[in-house]
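> Could you send the Corrinoid adenosyltransferase prediction when you get a chance?

Sure thing. Input:
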Amino acid sequence: MKIYTRTGDQGNTFVIGGQVRKDDLQVEAYGSLDELNSFVGQAAAAACADGESWNDELKKQLVRIQHELFDCGSDLAYAKPNELGYKVHGELTGNLEAWIDSWEQELPPLERFVLPGGTTLAAVLHVCRTVCRRAERRVVSLAAETDINKEVLRYVNRLSDYFFTAARLANVKAGVPETEYERSGKVFR
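Output:
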């Protein structure tokens, strides 16, 4: 099988059950999730390179999230609402919330905005967070135009919170203090 099909040479691509332009909101939404998935892979690689024992659990979670991002993209790739059922459901969002809640117990209270950075792992997780937010905006735009699996939107929204929490924890575990935004008041209570 050849990797190229030439079907996109005119600016169109196939979705499940149809064909759309490559700049269609639908393609923008699941394409942004695909981009995010690549950065999550980079974060998983950084977790392996870091050598910290807690990173084993983080890496497992990140690989699981990569599979779930493919599920999100699949759910958004239907030309018409999926009558056979979607892959993304509330349990996946609940898992993210449980991981966040568990990790927050190990973090100092957050009072001010923090700058992305610290360790290499934390920096990559912050990139995941911001790319996730962009993907979320694309999913919101798509949802305003057509019926989608609303759980994808909930999942992606919570996922950015997961990346933020994981980035903070990466710095805490490495003993690297976060840099607070200098002109920030106490915005979190």
